[in-house]
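Everyone, describe these structure tokens:
***
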Amino acid sequence: MQRLPQFRAFAAAAAFAALLSSCGDSRTQIRIVGSSTVFPFTTAVAENFSRNNPEYLAPIVEATGTGGGIKLFCAGVGSRFPDVANASRRMKRSELKDCLANGAREVVEVQVGIDGLVLAQGKRGVPINLTLRDVYAALAAEPFGKPQTARTWADVNPALPAIRIEVIGPPPTSGTRDSFNELYMEAGCLAEPAMKALKAADEERFKTICNRVREDGKYVEAGENDNLIVQKLASNPNAIGAFGFSFLEANLDTLRDVPINGVPATNETISNRTYPAARAMFIYVKAQHVKAIRGLREFLDEYTSDRAWAPGGYLERRGLVPSPEEVRIETRARAAALTPLAAEDLA
């Protein structure tokens, strides 16, 4: 019995050595997958990491969508599996459960900033202001449990222009779509008191009525690349696109935001959360890989440095709104200690 602690220490060391060998011998670059919304921010960090650490190869960053990226990330531990997942929403408890089942037992959550899931249109289009209720009523397959008959925005709300409803947005595999369902569809649905009662009485029916999007061409799925939505808006000025605030900021020469509930999408309204569709952005890192992949520790330090994510940092210049100072301090401490995410932390 006295030898048991020594045996455990030996077993742990052997497992770590096997992981190190697996990761180090077959892959010498950090591999990152996930959200297309977080992609430009992580790419900026990767560029600065490479400049500041020339001894390491540049990280590989792929835009696979949040859901697809987390699935790849949680599939296992070792050189075949990504080290980092970008996410435009928080990881789900079911996803963390998959990670744990596949040996990724130490997943570190890093909130890297705040973004707005904005609606925007081409500057040549007819200006429009929408409420969350308008958006839901226009796009729901069964608005408030009734048949969908709206063809123009005026059909939804007589105060709106009589132009054809066409919203171009993310597909179901995207974390941005999850955010769209929560921040626009469910929030707009709950504007009707009867829907609040339905949620309490029948959660499954509530989800169907409030989340299911119509499939008659009024909502157009544009894939995982938000730049494609921007391009489509340029050629179709009366269409409305849904994507991250940074893409709006980068294209203000051709686009303008669609105010929601009377609130415009700005750095200030997203930072103070008065914009109805503000949301946190995340990366998830395998602590086990930090011990095995060269440069991953330094990459994480770069992402959580003031020069990157603080006010005035280069991520803010790319369009990411900094998290509040207390959030950054707490997150940096967790990242430095490689504190793993616990299932009870997630909904």
Observations:
- Residues 4-26 form the longest helix (23 residues).
- DSSP finds 17 helices and nine strands in the chain.
- The chain has two domains: 4-115+280-345, 116-278.
